[in-house]
Specification:
This protein has about 130 residues and is mainly alpha-helical. It contains five helices and no strands. The longest helix has about 40 residues. InterPro entries: Mechanosensitive_channel_CS, MS_channel, MSC/AndL, MscL_channel.
Length: about 130
């Protein structure tokens, strides 16, 4: 049980959660960029070369086709991953808020403590 509390405290630290989100979002965005270059930009750049070669074999022509479906799939995956991460962060923020609300406010100093504080302050003045 103690290790679970330590793990929760570790995850609830802002730096760890922010870093985890950044790594996952970075990986998902990297997939979008790779798909954009590999499935859209490169075939568009190769299309004039393929037309100039007068290829009659359809199999050879297919490798130069623009695969916009792959790119759209990468974008959709990114949006889903980003939304799930948003929900996870909101969940952890709500846990943190509940923890802050549950922690009691510091107790009011007793009459003796107030008197001792006044005496200390008077002694400091002298």
């Amino acid at each position: 049980m103690g290790m679970l509390k330590e793990f929760r405290a570790f995850v609830m630290r802002g730096n760890v959660l922010d870093l985890a989100v950044a790594v996952v979002i970075g990986a998902a965005f990297s997939a979008i960029v790779s798909s954009l270059v590999g499935d859209v930009i490169t075939p568009l750049l190769l299309a004039p070369a393929l037309k100039a070669a007068h290829l009659e074999d359809i199999d050879k022509l297919a490798w130069g086709a623009v695969k916009y479906g792959n790119f759209l799939a990468a974008v959709i995956k990114f949006v889903v991953i980003a939304f799930v991460l948003f929900l996870v962060v909101k969940f952890f923020q709500s846990l943190e808020r509940k923890k802050a609300e549950a922690s009691p406010a510091p107790a009011e100093p007793t009459a003796t403590e107030k008197l001792l504080t006044e005496i200390r302050d008077e002694l400091k003045k002298r």
